[in-house]
Amino acid sequence: MDLNQTSKILITCAKGISPFLEEEVKCLGKTPVSSHETGLVVNGTLLDTYKLNLELRTAYNVLFLLKEFSCSGPDELYRKAGDIEWEDIIPPNEYISVVSQVNTPSIKNSMFANQKLKDALTDRMTRKTGSRPDAGPERENIVINLYWNKNLAWIYINTSGRKLADRSYRKIPLKAPMQETLAAAVLVASGYKGKTHFVNPMCGSGTLAIEAALIALNKAPGLLRGNFAFMHLKDFDNVYWRNLRKEALRASGKKTDFKIIATDIDSSAVHASICNAKTAGVDHLIEFKACDYLDTEIPAGKGIVILNPEYGERMGDVVKLAATYKEIGDFFKKKCAGSTGYIFTGNLELAKKVGLQASRRIPFYNGDIECRLLRYEIY
Ligand SMILES: C[S@@+](CC[C@H](N)C(=O)[O-])C[C@H]1O[C@@H](n2cnc3c(N)ncnc32)[C@H](O)[C@@H]1O
Question: What residues line ligand 1, using a CB cutoff of 6 Å?
Answer without folding.
Answer: 174, 176-178, 201-202, 204-205, 207-208, 264-266, 269, 292-293, 308-310
